[in-house]
Amino acid sequence: MTSEPSRRLARLTVDLSAICANWRRFADLAGPGEAAAVVKADAYGLGVRDVAPALALEGARTFFVATLGEALDLRDTLGEAQTIYVLNGPTYDDVGAFAPARLFPVLNSLDQIGIWKAAGAEVAAALHIDTGMNRLGLPLTDLGAAHDALARRDMPLVMSHLACASDPAHALNALQLKRFTEVAAHFPGARKSLAATSGAFCGAAYRFGLLRPGIGLYGDAGLDGDAQPLAPAATLDAPILQLRDIAAGETVGYGATFTAPAPMRTATIALGYADGYLRSASGRGYGVLAGARCPILGRVSMDLITLDVTAAGGAAEVGSRVEMLGANVPLRDVAAAAGTATYEVLTNLSGVARRHVRSAA
Ligand SMILES: *Cc1c(COP(=O)(O)O)cnc(C)c1O
Predict the structure, then answer these.
(1) pLDDT of residue 223
(2) pLDDT at position 354 over 80
(3) pLDDT tens column, 154-163
(4) What is the rounded CA–CA span in Å between residue 190 and residue 147?
(5) Topology of 33-218 in CATH?
(6) Nearest-atom index, ligand 1, CA of 106
(7) Which residue among 88, 161, 193, 224 is best mutated to probe the pocket of ligand 1, counting the most ligand atoms within 8 A of its Cβ?
(8) Looking at domain 234-358, does it have CATH number 2.40.37.10?
């Protein structure tokens, strides 16, 4: 089998220097505290094997992933120096795998505390306390029992997670902050961590000793309203495979969901939902070619999207690359067009499109 030339394929370009600059911004916000790096889900789809070492070089010392498998891979990638926490915590089956790789679980329940203790491990683990999200984390009502189970030993890290930090004015933020502050006082020797990306922008009171940014490293501040103080880290572009001129009244794509109101020039590009470009952006998303905005016409197909490239004039040629995400097509616009979160736009691109990595400067 001959491999297809990459100029005929969609391409994801990951800008490691942008990711490092974004991390630096959180490190600055953390003040005397530290900024960790959340690299679960293959660094939000951008490639943990490239992203994590770049961040380690930039100075990141603490990493969070979701699963033990991710953590073992990350330990392989990073070597021994960095601290790695596993957000989902241990099970009876896998608890033995943590210590040999120097991985620290985040303990989320009395059960997990029991598992950790039964394994004879020392208390090098984080404790996640649920202060109102009702997802993972020790319920406040179990705190006394947990304290006893931990034999009143201190934890190196006590953390919680905000449910509504994308809206800094949401009342649940202040309530979670209050609960966390009270609970954390029971662990005087522990480092405290409450804020992920958007929480870091909720005010100094939310920052404590360790920030846990994820999406912020990859270019989105996670806030519902405001402008973005962060650098875009991912560019997705795809080449034009075919051009055509269609007349008013002609339709485009499956289901003939788009009807041309006027004559237009269309381009079909090599990108589709099989590459992770969400089908829900059908008829709503857009690309940019030579500064011209090119709306998606009709449905996104498995490997193809058809765009209106009339405004791009002579720049629209077979082989020209249309930007579908990047500096000219903000992540937030793509998410809005697809009716989803920036997080899902990025994680969908994991491992599918071709990836070029620009080294950190
Ligand atoms: C995913 C996650 C983060 C990172 O969240 P972002 O919004 O991407 O910054 C931090 N903490 C926990 C517990 C998480 O699950």
Answers:
(1) 87
(2) no
(3) 688 999 999 9
(4) 13
(5) TIM Barrel (3.20.20)
(6) 13
(7) 161
(8) yes
